[in-house]
C-alpha cells in the first residue's frame, strides 16, 4: 500500500466534499468573528492573510468547537478544514497538543493521530512566539514515532521534517525527537518510514553551531543505510542526500568510515545511478570538488531515464559555482523537452550565479522559442533565470570594483579541508 498516494487521494476527496469551499462574504465584516480577515502589516510577527473567513458555512471559532468533539470523524473533518484558514489555524494548536498529551493518547483513532501530525507539520511552527506550542508539538510528534501503526509514524516523521531546524530549539524534546527519527531509520515495517526519517534528519539534524558538526550517531546510522543493510534504493538515495546536506562529523573515526562508505557506493557500477550521484556529491562535500566526479554527474544530464537526468541537474545545482565546468552540458540539456527537467536545469544555473553567464545566449534562444510557441509560463521561467544570473554577475562586478587591493605579500592558496560547505550563492 502506497501511503503517500492514499493520503493525497483522501485529501483531494475531502476538499471536494466540503460544501461552500469558496470564501463566503469575504469582503463583509462579521461581528461574530473576532479574528480579522486580513492581518495588518503593523502586527509584528504575523503575515498578511487573505485566507478563508468562512468554510462550509462556519467560521474558525465554530470549527474550533468541533475540534473538541470526542467523535473521531467530527475531529478529523475539523482539523483538516482548520488548516485552510492559514496562519490563523495556529489557534487550534493547544487543542491538538492536549489530545496527544493525554494519558489515553495511545487509544486515539489512527486517523485522529495521522491528521493531528499532518496539521502540526503544516501550520508553520517555529515563528517567534511559538515556543510553548512548538515544544508541545515536538513532544507529541516524537511520541507518535513510537506508535504501533506505520502510517502514524510515517506522518510524524514528515511533520518533524516540515518543522525543521526549529525542533532543536526545544532542548530536551528536540533531542528526543532526533533520537527517535534516527532509531526509525531501522524500521522494518515499510521503507517509506525509513525514507521519511532520512529526509527529516536533513533539517532536524542540522547542528545549531556549524563548527560542532552533526551528531555522530545520526551520521553513522545514515551511513549504514548506504550499505547492504538497506535494500531500498529510494532510502539509500535519501540517506546520501541527507549526509551531503549535514556535512562531515567532527569525530575523525566516524568521518573516515563515512568517506570509505561513500567511496564504495560512488564507484559501485551495480548501485542505483541516483544513489551514486549523491554519493559523489557527498564525497566532494567532504574532500573537495574533483573534475572526474563532476563529469560523472554532468554526463547523466542526457540519461534516458528522466529521474536520473533530474537528479543530475539537481546535484549540480547543489554544488553551485564549483560545478561551472558543466555549464556546456547544462546548455545542451536546455534542449530537453520535459518541463520538470528544465525546472532542475534552471535551478542549477541560478545557483551557479555569475559562473552561469556562458549560458545566457542559450537561455535567450529558449526564450524566443517560448515566445513563438506562446508558452508564457516557460517564457517567464527563462526570464527569471536570466535575471538572476545577470544580477549576480553585476553584484560580483561591483564587489570586485570596490574591493581594495591587498598590499600584503600574497599567500599561497591552500586546499580546503574536508567538510567545507559548497558555496550557497
In the predicted model, the low-confidence regions spanning at least 5 consecutive residues are 1-50, 413-421
- What CATH calls the topology of the largest domain is Leucine-rich Repeat Variant
Q: Nearest-angstrom radius of gyration?
A: 24 Å
> SSE order, as H and E?
HHHHHHHHHHHHHHHHHHH
- Give the number of helices: 19
The whole-number mean of residue pLDDT values reads 83
| Category by helix and strand content | mainly alpha
CATH architecture of the largest domain: Alpha Horseshoe
CATH class of the largest domain: Mainly Alpha
* Biggest beta sheet attributes: none
Fraction in beta strands: under 5%
How many domains comprise the coordinates? 3
Kindly state the number of beta strands: 0
From the N-terminal CA to the C-terminal CA, the straight-line distance is: 41 Å
The name of the CATH superfamily of the largest domain reads Leucine-rich Repeat Variant
What is the approximate shape?
Answer: globular
Helix content: 55-70%
Secondary structure: elements and pairs:
Layout: H1 3-17, H2 60-67, H3 72-82, H4 93-101, H5 110-122, H6 131-144, H7 150-163, H8 172-183, H9 191-204, H10 216-224, H11 233-246, H12 252-266, H13 273-287, H14 291-299, H15 306-319, H16 327-333, H17 339-352, H18 360-372, H19 376-402
Helix pairs in contact: 2-3, 3-5, 4-6, 5-7, 6-7, 6-8, 7-9, 8-9, 8-10, 9-11, 10-12, 11-13, 12-13, 13-14, 13-15, 14-15, 15-17, 17-19, 18-19
Amino acid at each position: 500500500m502506497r501511503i503517500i498516494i492514499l493520503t493525497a487521494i483522501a485529501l483531494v476527496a475531502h476538499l471536494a466534499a466540503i460544501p461552500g469551499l469558496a470564501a463566503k462574504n469575504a469582503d463583509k465584516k462579521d461581528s461574530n468573528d473576532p479574528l480579522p480577515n486580513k492581518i495588518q502589516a503593523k502586527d509584528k510577527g504575523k503575515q498578511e492573510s487573505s485566507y478563508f473567513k468562512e468554510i462550509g458555512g462556519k467560521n474558525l471559532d465554530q470549527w474550533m468547537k468541533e475540534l473538541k468533539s470526542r467523535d473521531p470523524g467530527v475531529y478529523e473533518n475539523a482539523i483538516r478544514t482548520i488548516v485552510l484558514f492559514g496562519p490563523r489555524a495556529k489557534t487550534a494548536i493547544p487543542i491538538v497538543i492536549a489530545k496527544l498529551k493525554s494519558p489515553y493518547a495511545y487509544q486515539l483513532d489512527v486517523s485522529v493521530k495521522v491528521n493531528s501530525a499532518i496539521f502540526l507539520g503544516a501550520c508553520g511552527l517555529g515563528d517567534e512566539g511559538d515556543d510553548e506550542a512548538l515544544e508541545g508539538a515536538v513532544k507529541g510528534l516524537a511520541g507518535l514515532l513510537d506508535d504501533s501503526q506505520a502510517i502514524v509514524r510515517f506522518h510524524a516523521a514528515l511533520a518533524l521534517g516540515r518543522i525543521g531546524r526549529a525542533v532543536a530549539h526545544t532542548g530536551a524534546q528536540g533531542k528526543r525527537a532526533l533520537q527517535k527519527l534516527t532509531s526509525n531509520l531501522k524500521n522494518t515495517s515499510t521503507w517509506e518510514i525509513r525514507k521519511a526519517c532520512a529526509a527529516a534528519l536533513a533539517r532536524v539534524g542540522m547542528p545549531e553551531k556549524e563548527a560542532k558538526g552533526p551528531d555522530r550517531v545520526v551520521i553513522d546510522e545514515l551511513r549504514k543505510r548506504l550499505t547492504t543493510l538497506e535494500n531500498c534504493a529510494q532510502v539509500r538515495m535519501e540517506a546520501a542526500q541527507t549526509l551531503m546536506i549535514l556535512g562531515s562529523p567532527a569525530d575523525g573515526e566516524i568521518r573516515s568510515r563515512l568517506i570509505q562508505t561513500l567511496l564504495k557506493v560512488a564507484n559501485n557500477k551495480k548501485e542505483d545511478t541516483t544513489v551514486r550521484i549523491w554519493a559523489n556529491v557527498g564525497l566532494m562535500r567532504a574532500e573537495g570538488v574533483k573534475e572526474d566526479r563532476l563529469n560523472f554527474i554532468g554526463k547523466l544530464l542526457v540519461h534516458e531515464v528522466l529521474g536520473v537526468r533530474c537528479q543530475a541537474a539537481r546535484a549540480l545545482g547543489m554544488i553551485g559555482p564549483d560545478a561551472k565546468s558543466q555549464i556546456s552540458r547544462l546548455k545542451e540539456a536546455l534542449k530537453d523537452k520535459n518541463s520538470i527537467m528544465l525546472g532542475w536545469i534552471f535551478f542549477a544555473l541560478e545557483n551557479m550565479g555569475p559562473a552561469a553567464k556562458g549560458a545566457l545566449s542559450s537561455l535567450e534562444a529558449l526564450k524566443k522559442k517560448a515566445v513563438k510557441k506562446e508558452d508564457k509560463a516557460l517564457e517567464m521561467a527563462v526570464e527569471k533565470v536570466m535575471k538572476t544570473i545577470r544580477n549576480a554577475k553585476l553584484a560580483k562586478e561591483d564587489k570586485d570594483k570596490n574591493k581594495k587591493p591587498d598590499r600584503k605579500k600574497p599567500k599561497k592558496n591552500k586546499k580546503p579541508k574536508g567538510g567545507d560547505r559548497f558555496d550557497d550563492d
